[in-house]
Amino acid sequence: MAQATSRNRRLAARIAEHSTGIIASVLFAAPIVWAVLSAFKPAQEARLPPLPPWPTSGISLENYATLNSFGDGLWVSAQNSIYVSAMTVVLSVAVSVLAGYGFSRFRFPFKDLFFILILSTIMIPFQSILTPIFLVLTKLGLHNTLTGLVGVYVTLQLPFSIFMMRNAFDAVPREIEEAARMDGAGNITMLIKVMLPLVWPGVVTIALFAFLGAWNEFLAALVLMTDQSKFTLPVMMTALQSGRFGAIDWGAVQAGVTVMMVPCLILFLVLQRFYIRGLMAGAVK
Amino acid sequence: MTSITAATPAPPRARKLTGAGRRQWIGLLYVAPAVALVVVFFLIPLGMTAWMSLHNWPLMGERSYIGLGNYVAILHDTRFWNALRFTGWYTLVVTIAIFAVAFPLALFVERPRPLTNLYRTMFFMPAVVGFASASLLWSWLLNVDSGLFSPAAYDLGLIDRKFNLLATFQPAFWSIIAMVVWKVAGFTMIILMAGLQSIPQDLQEAAVIDGAGPFARFRAITLPLMRRTLALALILSVAGSILAFDQFYIILRGGPRNQTLTAVYWIFNQSFVSFKLGYGAALSMVLLVILVALSLVQLWLLRKPEGLD
Q1: Element of type H or E holding A188
Q2: Shortest distance, CA A29 to any CA of chain B (angstroms)
Q3: pLDDT digits (tens, 9 = 90+) for A71-107
Q4: Exposure winner among A180, A227, B33, B268, fewest CB in 10 A?
Q5: Within this chain, do residues B18 and B149 fall inside the same structural domain, yes or no?
Q6: Which residue windows are transmembrane per the record (chain B) (predicted)?
């Protein structure tokens, strides 16, 4: 009898627990799902309130087509965003792997000073130095170029990713390197052939953070990219949503938001492990 | 160069190897690209901000040295102080709101149970979406005619006629708070969860044996042992909120009636709309001092607990 009551109570507790979990999950997922589903409505329907969220008069890609007809089009901005994010990933990984290795394995003058200098940039908000960055880029002839924007984004990633890579290299036993050196491996060969496979998880983590950072960044892109053909997705979509291309087409906004969100969500779901790792590495510090 | 190497005592292990000293110098080459980027995109702009703040510096035309003129002007710039006050209020409210949601969620997903991983992922999803995407998405949901909230409330008969959430200050402000909590709570939850998991289980068990109730355990064990984690989550939330821009620019354009201009928004307006670059730089210096002060508080809050390593 007593056993049955306690079993019932445990069952009730479990039901309460999971209903809480499910309701909360639905609340967090709803806005995303709502936008993704609504984006597939025909333009006529997308203008109405999204009730229900799914298309009722047939699935259509009209909103994506409309989006492509605004200004220089969805595809140009998407290409800009892809280019900027890819370059940010490649360069910030290259620079941080080299620097992480340098800080982990060599002694040289000003080593601590340089390391502290790089890490301390995290204390200074880049929002407060945007104007001079604008002027520096103009001086370098990189004003209003995607390359200039990449330079800014890579620099923003450095404190986190160099810290991450330095720690990753620190965790590799020195014996491995000494053995490879005996076999006559030079510095660069050693780094690429011997060390890189060992710090691979760290590389994936910093690449993921670099992608998300560059793909989602808004203020610097808004300030530095003045030419419509150079707009990244967030800047282009904001111009559209502000009515810069005429009456606001909410269907096109849903389509644009979907294009902006889906790559982040897919990468996160696939590489979740690495994301959480990075977060913890940052948090534990 | 050689004199410096000679002056620096080489470590005993390195001295045995021929050419090891030079090999160590190669380290400079490895870190050079990173240092160069930081110098070009951080140090120089930082110095320039300070320099520019002492000038009248229009985008086109002559610039002139005016000493502390810009800073004096800031003292009389009531709209900047209003923006700063609003930023402070927003930071306070949103931080409390984020913690009020994130802490229960962290307690909920802390212990491994069936489906916990799924819940964590679901709660975390909005955090990987950018602030700009989230703002665009919510600007649609909040729209009075084509959005979700107002039409849904109308259809359900909760309101007699459609209500524009973004037309007046209070509903607009709380809509932004809701959006930010939705976007950020999962992130804060993961950090708090890491802190919760680092509390030794036997400590809790010992307290149970001693007859401590759940509330007493929370106060006497969980909270004190989570000090560093709480401080970290708090600082990330505060620093992020003080720099808020995207959501206020995209959803509200600083409105209604310029009541939701944040500090960064005001600097953006002065620098890139009015093109008063020198004045914008001076405003930036004020913001910078506030954030560096905050970072110092952060280092103090995050200090290692005494007695432990």
Answers
A1: helix A187-189
A2: 6
A3: 788 899 999 999 999 999 999 999 999 999 999 989 9
A4: A227
A5: no
A6: 25-51, 89-109, 121-141, 172-196, 229-252, 279-302
Flag if A109 and B267 touch (Cβ within 8 Å).
no
**In a shared domain, residues B27 and B102:** no
- Least confident window among A83-92, B75-84, B148-157, B264-273: B148-157
Of the candidates B24, B105, B287, which has its C-beta nearest A128's C-beta? Answer: B287
Give A102→chain B minimum CA distance, Å: 5
pLDDT at B16 over 70: no
Q: Which amino acid is at B299?
A: L
Count the neighbouring beta carbons within 10 Å of the beta carbon of residue A73: 15
CB contact under 8 A, B285 and A215: no
B26-40: b (≥16 Cβ within 10 Å) or e:
ebbebbebbbebbeb
State the complex-level ipTM: 0.92
Judge if B46 and B92 occupy the same domain: no
Q: Does domain A70-248 have CATH number 1.10.3720.10?
A: yes
pLDDT(B159) > 70: yes
Partners of residue B65 on adjacent β-strands:
B55
Specify the number of domains making up chain B: 2
Same domain, B37 and B147: no
pTM of the entire predicted model: 0.90
Tell me which chain B residues have a C-beta less than 8 angstroms from the C-beta of A25. 118-119, 122-123
CB contact under 8 Å between B30 and A102, yes or no, is: yes
DSSP 8-state assignment for residue A228:
G
Residue A62 confidence (pLDDT) above 80:
yes
- One-letter amino acid of B106: A
Q: Which domain holds residue B94?
A: 72-301
Residue-level pLDDT at B305: 63
